Amino acid sequence: MGLKKTTEACVLLLLLPFVCSDNLLQLNIVLAYSKDFKKMSLEQKINDEIKVAMRAKDSDKLDALRAVKSAILLAKTSKGGGDELSEDQEIKLLSKLAKQRRESAQLYREQNRADLAETEEKQLTVIEQYLPEQLSEEELTTTVQQIIQQLGASSMADMGKVMGAASKQLAGKADGKAISAIVKQLLST
Predict the structure, then answer these.
(1) Does domain 41-131 sit in CATH 1.10.1510.10?
(2) Which of 32, 120, 134, 138 has the fewest CB atoms within 10 Å, i.e. the most exposed one?
(3) What whole-number distance in Å separates Cα of residue 75 and Cα of residue 73?
(4) Contact 73/90 with Cβ under 8 angstroms?
């Protein structure tokens, strides 16, 4: 699927509710284009979404997307970066950006700067759209328990082993702090 067709698809998806009143037809069009959209690299998705955000004059989304694009370009041009980022590298990059926004928003809230916190939170919601779905606390606990059983860990001395395996397996699906808290809880009991 060419870039032009993808851009047209994104614009079509924005205009679809105004043009087409049949919900089933809307769903079929969205599904047809979403399959091709999933195959695209993150950089291509971001470039297309930037164009759509520019046309829609959505400055908050545009700022977040430009930050992601900037981070991708920095990662590609850094030492050891290649022409394309792997999916793991993309997830790691997006997780880092999301964590930065989350921490900044928290700091702004603590300093009574709600306006700046809201900007960070809006950017966070845009960035999170490109991350894999986050695990619930129960799913996370179950996964960590399985990892502990596989490794035969039984005490806090094994925490490093468990954290290494858990971080690798749950990359992008859970926050490191949440993983660490659950590992500590499970190993201390």
Answers:
(1) yes
(2) 138
(3) 5
(4) no
